[in-house]
Target: DUF305 domain-containing protein
Amino acid sequence: MYGALLLSISLALSSCNSKPDTDAHEQEVHAGQPKPAPVATPPSLRDTLQLLAHQLDTVRRRGCWDEDFARLMTVHHAGAQRLAAVEVSRGQDSTLRALAQHVLKGHERDNDVLTLALARQPPSGQEYRPGNAKDPFVRRIAAALAPLRQPPPTPGPLDTDFATLMQVHHRSGVALAQTELAFGKDAELKDAARRIVRDEQAEVWQYQRWLKAHAAVPAN
Model:
């Protein structure tokens, strides 16, 4: 009987001590596991446009009209696609989302032409000096990119901001393409530039019409 009592007490003590041991073990296991990474805040449309302006400023220019246009326009198109991706993922208006999808798909055709142009041998020698601020080509490129650095106010909602900033982007793209038409020699690139002027001017008009219908003030 005395032995049975000791066994009972031993089992009771063992049972009481089991939970703390288990809790301690679980804490050790969880302590060794990596903590989940914080969720990054998605970039705003304005930040996306300003990033594009910075990237365009750092594009390497070799002094060849066609090649430098192709490099700049490739980066410029990528910026439009990032803006469109934000609208597709977070926008609410079906018309603007459709326009954003059009940007994502339509720029792929131009990107193929631009990539092929960059793969070809550039002309021998320089056609202009990239560091010469007085050169007509340099001046026109600078004027085309300037609006990207000072976009209009974007107080929201996101759809309105997208339509506003895409106007700024497309007007800049039209100016870049018109510079290629004025200076470039490559027939395929000039065809692409004409298409960019036509398509992006038409899209600017669509954004203006949407903003007017939604009582927003179009960007200057």
The two ends are 98 Å apart (CA to CA). Residues 181 and 216 are 33 Å apart (CA to CA). The first helix runs from residue 2 to 31.
